[in-house]
Write a structure and sequence with these properties.
Distance between the termini: 58 Å
CATH architecture: 3-Layer(aba) Sandwich
Structural class: alpha/beta
Helix content: 25-40%
Radius of gyration: 20 Å
CATH superfamily: P-loop containing nucleotide triphosphate hydrolases
Number of strands: 10
Strand order of the largest sheet: 6-7-8-3-9-10
Number of domains: 1
């Protein structure tokens, strides 16, 4: 049996421990993704979704637990080291890019970061530009004739499509998508989601995608997980994922809300607030 593309064991992390703003962001997360799996993560604000992606990407070192990518323990590896194996697209279309550089230069840096062509000047030679233009043309946005345009001059949807291309230019072992269509208008979001699905299908990318959209959570991916208070509380896969509907997710959220209210009431009783 092959190694999981991603394996998380007992991840725990607390922000501001011991202080008035203490937040237990991850509370014992176990998760394994087989190669080629597309997992969509949903949860309320503060449930730990983005913290989970940051832990995988290496933005911080978790208090406890381990992170393995492709069978390699990267728990303490810095973010720039993990970037060779992990592609990531953020909510902000300019995050993870160099807005003042051109489209060609940004794509060249993406190839260099992932261990492809070395050296920015060499990467934008005439032959390399032709190859980059072909990849950009596949986006269907007419940007192949604008390789010398600064990335900051493009629309949000164009920037996000190029950021997705940068993240997958050299096939990553793992693709992280952090609400990458949330800042876009509906038309641009639909286009970027289409390009995302095409990239995942074409290269069989192992993908972990965070979203606030229940429609996306139902429609996309072959597995879905729901987080709450730093834990994975639901795991939808196989036939259960294929049958999943928005109403099912709403029911899950309602059950969690009711459970939280019961917990609050029990705590109040212990404090003597109710007779």
């Amino acid at each position: 049996m092959s190694e999981p593309a991603l394996e998380l064991r007992g991840l725990r992390h607390t922000f501001h421990p011991g202080g008035p703003n203490e937040m237990r962001a991850l509370q014992g997360v176990d998760l394994a993704l087989e190669p080629g799996t597309f997992v969509v993560v949903v949860g309320t604000n503060g449930s730990g979704k983005s913290t989970l992606l940051n832990a995988v990407a290496g933005t911080f070192v978790p208090d406890h637990g381990s992170v393995r990518v492709g069978g390699v323990d990267v728990t303490r590896a810095p973010e720039h080291v993990r970037a060779r194996a992990i592609g990531r697209v953020f909510q902000d279309p300019l995050t993870g890019t160099a807005p003042h550089l051109t489209i060609a230069e940004n794509l060249a840096l993406a190839g260099q970061r992932a261990g492809g062509v070395r050296g920015l000047r060499r990467a934008v030679t005439r032959g390399a530009r032709r190859a980059l233009a072909e990849r950009v043309a596949a986006l269907g946005m007419g940007l192949e004739d604008r390789l010398d345009s600064p990335l900051a001059s493009l629309s949000g949807g164009q920037r996000q499509a190029l950021t997705l291309l940068m993240a997958t230019l050299v096939r990553p072992e793992l693709l992280l998508l952090d609400e990458h269509t949330a800042a876009l208008d509906p038309s641009s979001a639909a286009q970027v989601l289409r390009l995302t699905q095409e990239a995942i299908d074409r290269d069989r990318l192992t993908t972990l995608m965070v979203t606030h959209s229940m429609q996306e959570a139902v429609r996309l991916g072959d597995r879905g997980i729901m987080m709450h208070q730093g834990r994975v509380v639901e795991d939808f896969s196989g036939a259960r994922k294929r049958r999943l509907r928005v109403t099912d997710l709403l029911d899950c959220f309602e059950q969690l809300r009711n459970a939280d209210q019961l917990d609050d009431s029990a705590a109040a009783m212990l404090r003597g607030e109710y007779v």
